[in-house]
Amino acid sequence: MLGFITPTKSNLSRSEIEKYRAYYCGLCHELKGRYGKEGAATLSYDMVFLILLLTDLYDAGIEGGFERCAARPLKEHKYITSPYTAYGADMQMLLSYYSELDKLHDRDDGADEKKVKALRNSLSPIEGKYPRQAKILREGLDALAKQEERGESDAVKMSYLFGSAIAEIFNPVENDFFSPSLLSLGSALGRFIYLMDAFIDRKKDEKRGSYNPLLGMNGEVIESLLMNAATDASTAFETLALDDNLAILRNIIYSGIWKSYDKEKNDD
Question: CA spacing 20 to 30 A to 9: which of 19, 44, 87, 253?
């Protein structure tokens, strides 16, 4: 359920694209440095959005450097990190662990079991450092899994369960001035991610006989559910005091998150 919170690069300037790539490479750099190859393999666009957001919102200092990597070995490229890059890396590992656990539950795949074990080795220190985020994510996803096992057909209810589990990740400082807006934003984006994931997987799930709360639902209704979640996300987003990364973040919120939907709809 990761990978939908991406920019529409055709609507960004060259300098904005370069900045986004530098933050993306910064997260990869951090994951690899803290968690090795297993960490770098979890890299996701969703956490780049969060790092851009929190770095801007809290006016965090940034650092940069140049490096080569396995993905781009021929030429040095820039990376940017801030204190929230480390936070984003830790949250990425938490999310990736539970995502792989969900895949293991669905498919009982030996390869997924190896991934889960590899990620589990890094999880205890993160859970100890961020007990609030880890507890709410774990309990929320457990509740979601139980409802899936019962065959809950209310897609709105399911999306809110996922959104509530994800929301706390967007709130690094408990009871901060910005906490209400960050929690609302995280919850709404979580709802959107859950619904988008179900929309993309609906044909495959129908063929396999797998759970999906959108099966049999009218396309216009699905689009309305997605639009409601996206609207709530943009409403919360616009209450935040942002400047340095605002253009990139708005691009993602208003355009980028819809790319997968547009592609899937055009393929129908």
Answer: 87
> Mean pLDDT throughout 141-160?
94
Q: Could you tell me the domains of the chain? A: 9-267 (1.10.600)
Rounded Cα distance between 86 and 253, Å, is: 23
pLDDT at 85: 97
Phi, psi for 63 (deg, rounded to 5): -130, 155
Chain-centre distance of CA 72, in angstroms? 24
Distance CA 38, CA 131 (A): 22
Q: Which two tokens stand for residue 117?
A: 């074990």
Residue from 123, 147, 145, 149 nearest 134 by CA: 123
Q: pTM above 0.90?
A: yes
Q: How many CB atoms lie within 10 A of CB 137?
A: 23
Give the mean pLDDT of 62-86.
Answer: 88
Q: What is the DSSP string of 120-180?
A: HHHHHHHHHH-HHHHHHHHHHHHHHHHHHHTT---HHHHHHHHHHHHHGGG-SSTT-TTHH
| pLDDT for residue 102 | 66
Query: Are 86 and 60 in contact, with CB atoms under 8 Å apart?
Result: no
pLDDT at 155 over 70: yes
Residue 195 · residue 229 · CB < 8 Å: yes
Whether 170 and 50 have beta carbons less than 8 Å apart is answered as yes
C-alpha–C-alpha distance, residues 40 and 191, integer Å: 26
Q: For the chain, what is the mean pLDDT?
A: 91
Look at residue 111 and tell me whether its pLDDT is greater than 60. no
Residue 106 has pLDDT above 60, yes or no: no
- Residues counted in the chain: 268
Query: For position 3, what pLDDT does the model report?
Result: 78
